[in-house]
Amino acid sequence: MKDVENVKAMNIAFLVYDQVEVLDLNGPLDVFVKANALYPGSYHCYTVGKTKDPVYVEANTMAIVPTYDLQNCLKPDMIVVPGTNPEYIMKYLQDNDFQNTVLKWVKEAYDSGAVVFTVCTGCMLLSNTGILNNHDITTHSMLLDALEKHNPESTVKRGVRYVDQGQLITTAGITAGIDAALYLIGKHQGQEAVDTIVELFEYQYTDSDK
């Protein structure tokens, strides 16, 4: 294992909102939590909501209570933006309050240097922010055409699991978020860390953005 003594932990904020896709959220979250167990002090993971009120998910069968709200959260080095059902995505794109609070916060963090990592339809959620402009991007196969229509200044990639543009990482559908998180762990910690987490997950990993 690498020596992480005196290395500042990366603050990773996981955005939660009403009807967020839980596997989009928990897949990458568990990867980073496992990596922090292997390399203590490397990753500080937490959830952020518009408020600290519970957000309801999975057809209202469960609720998530955010660790922080937008006003009191720690400054993130990375924001993970999970997706939701396409029907909800389209509603959020028309929701001025959501755009001017939650997504404004994401954009301001991005402009300040934070990495933005979208999972599945989370990419589509950012269509009005300008974050996606002039980048190669991807999303769930169901929304590729819509993503292209809403982001004419971007290049939509098809048939890939994830796309790394440096400060912006986007993924295909749901489980692709796990692949991209493992890829990022590989960049940070090396292949041994990835292999260990994959073994713990008993996961069939796709190590490719091609």
Describe this structure in words.
The chain has helices at 22-38, 86-93, 96-100, 102-111, 122-125, 144-150, 176-189, 191-201, and strands spanning 10-15, 43-49, 55-57, 62-64, 68-69, 78-81, 115-118, 136-137, 155-156, 162-164, 168-171. It is globular, with a radius of gyration of 16 Å. Strand 10 (162-164) and strand 11 form a beta hairpin. It has one domain: Rossmann fold (3-Layer(aba) Sandwich). The protein is built from 8 helices and 11 strands. It starts with 9 loop residues before the first strand and ends in a 9-residue tail after the last helix. The chain has 210 residues and is of the alpha/beta class. A 7-stranded mixed beta sheet has the order 5-2-1-6-7-11-10, sandwiched between helices. A two-stranded antiparallel ribbon has the order 3-4. This is DJ-1/PfpI family protein. It holds the Pfam family DJ-1_PfpI. It comes from Chryseobacterium pyrolae.
List the helices and strands and how they pair.
Elements: E1 10-15, H1 22-38, E2 43-49, E3 55-57, E4 62-64, E5 68-69, E6 78-81, H2 86-93, H3 96-100, H4 102-111, E7 115-118, H5 122-125, E8 136-137, H6 144-150, E9 155-156, E10 162-164, E11 168-171, H7 176-189, H8 191-201
Parallel strand pairs: 1-2, 1-6, 2-5, 6-7, 7-11, 8-9
Antiparallel strand pairs: 3-4, 10-11
Helix pairs in contact: 1-7, 7-8
